[in-house]
Amino acid sequence: MTKGIKLINVDFFPETFSPAVLYISEEYKVAGHLCACGCGSQVITPLGPAEWCFTEVEGKPSLEPSIGNWQLPCKSHYWITAGRIEWSYGWTEKQIKQGELVEEEQRQLYYAKREKRTKWYFVLQRVFQWFFPR
Ligand SMILES: [Zn+2]
Hints:
By secondary structure, this protein is α+β, with helices and mostly antiparallel strands. It has one helix at 93-131; strands at residues 6-9, 21-25, 30-34, 42-46, 53-57, 60-68, 77-81, 84-87. It folds into two domains: 1-90, no CATH class; 92-134.
């Protein structure tokens, strides 16, 4: 199991990942690393307001929220905090399912909010054009 992870900034991911490296592509807003349990699976995490939040302090990467590899056979779950892997133990299948649900809900909520905002923008634009025709 990996205990620490170092940061490498890239434009494109390399063909094969090195263990204990977090690849960050700021350009494509995506991060990738090998599952910290050592199973060899690539874990790709998109970065963004509704996805993962990446921060870096003195070259030590952090990702929020935690990495939950429910889709992998190993089902590992850990946090990447300031270049360290913090393991979460004792997650039951039920908790995993709930975790997935919460994440999905948050995502839906975010997109619903964004949609609403966009609609309002168009309404305001219309009103504005009504009063100030070109
Ligand atoms: Zn794994």
